[in-house]
């Protein structure tokens, strides 16, 4: 009877962990919760002066630095990706707990062939 009690506890904890992971991911993707700040990397950019060939005897062309994405959006995309990967690991941990709980709850039936 003790294994049934442990099975129900593991099943409940596993389901709670999975629901918490899903809620965290949904809230972070909808923008209600900010993801964990792991990265603050400048966004990829290029200078337009490098696209204009230099002519000897003339001054070097003045270019403009253009960012492909804004730095804040680029860091936010990276942070969302890392949080999603982290929550998939948490979700698989909750699944393993719930699966173990279900295995403890299931009755063991042994049929002997004679």
What do these coordinates show?
This protein has 114 residues and is mainly α. 56% of the residues lie in helices and 5% in strands. It has two helices and two strands, in the order H-E-E-H. Strands 1-2 form a two-stranded antiparallel ribbon. Helix 1 packs antiparallel against helix 2 (71-105). It is rod-shaped. The model has no long low-confidence stretch (mean pLDDT 88).
Return the structural class: mainly alpha
Q: Give the radius of gyration.
A: 27 Å
Order of helices and strands: HEEH
What low-confidence regions span 5 or more consecutive residues with pLDDT below 50?
A: none
Number of strands: 2
Supply the number of helical segments: 2
Overall residue-averaged pLDDT value = 88
């Amino acid at each position: 009877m003790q294994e049934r009690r442990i099975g129900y506890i593991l099943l409940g904890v596993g389901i709670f962990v999975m629901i918490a992971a899903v809620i965290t991911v949904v809230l972070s993707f909808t923008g209600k919760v900010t993801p964990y700040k792991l990265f603050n990397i400048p966004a990829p950019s290029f200078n337009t002066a490098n696209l204009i060939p230099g002519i000897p005897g003339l001054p070097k062309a003045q270019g403009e630095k253009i960012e492909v994405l804004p730095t804040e959006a680029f860091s936010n995309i990276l942070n969302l990706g890392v949080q999603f990967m982290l929550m998939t690991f948490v979700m698989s941990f909750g699944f393993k707990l719930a699966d173990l709980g279900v295995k403890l709850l299931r009755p063991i039936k042994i049929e002997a062939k004679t």
